[in-house]
TrEMBL record:
Residue numbers bearing the 4-aspartylphosphate modification: 68
Annotated organism of origin: Stieleria bergensis
InterPro entries xrefs: Bact_response_regulator (IPR050595), CheY-like_superfamily (IPR011006), Homeodomain-like_sf (IPR009057), HTH_Fis (IPR002197), Sig_transdc_resp-reg_receiver (IPR001789)
A single BP term in Gene Ontology: phosphorelay signal transduction system
Pfam families: HTH_8 (PF02954), Response_reg (PF00072)
Response regulatory domain residues: 19-133
Record's protein name: Photosynthetic apparatus regulatory protein RegA
Superkingdom as given in the UniProt entry: Bacteria
Amino acid sequence: MMAEESTPMYGSNDVGADSILLVDDTLILRDRLAMAMRQRGFRVQTAGNYEEAIEVFRHSPTDLAVLDLRMPGRSGLDLLRRLLQMHPRVRVIMLSGFGSIPASIDAVRAGAVNFLSKPADADDILAAFHRGDEPSVPTGEVSFPAPSLARNEWEHIHRVLSDCGGNISEAARRLGIHRRSLQRKLRKRAPEDPATPEVIEDQETLCD
């Protein structure tokens, strides 16, 4: 749950910005975060998908942007790259309902300031902006223990699903498996590799 009722730890002055774009396809989460950001002194713009965000940002660019990684249609990574093309100085935080090291590295390498797992409240997000060039995920040459075959499969499935904009039928077609088989795989938790902590949260539900 968003913590807009609590005393703000950070405000617009703390992050050196006065405007923010919030992009998430879940209306209630987007609206609650927008309210919290307004209470912290920001001019807030909102959008529910890639196309809406581009239109809003074109007419009213913001200093900061918070993007959901997985949305219907084009992904948050696509949106991140496009926003940086339009306004190279915009600072972006990427959010995801389930965190993964590969996804976080992809986001930071594409230009995001940081990558946070949901739920993230306004202070979590502003704290990440406040840290600036100190992202909490690895960005350079990183070394991880070799993942298991099951973990590799899990990561591959979710990358394909992301490329398909969350469309399970299209992802199943590209993977060459039945749609119901893919749905069963998506309901499973990410396999935990030996000697490494689990870094993936369970994804409760997925829909086309």
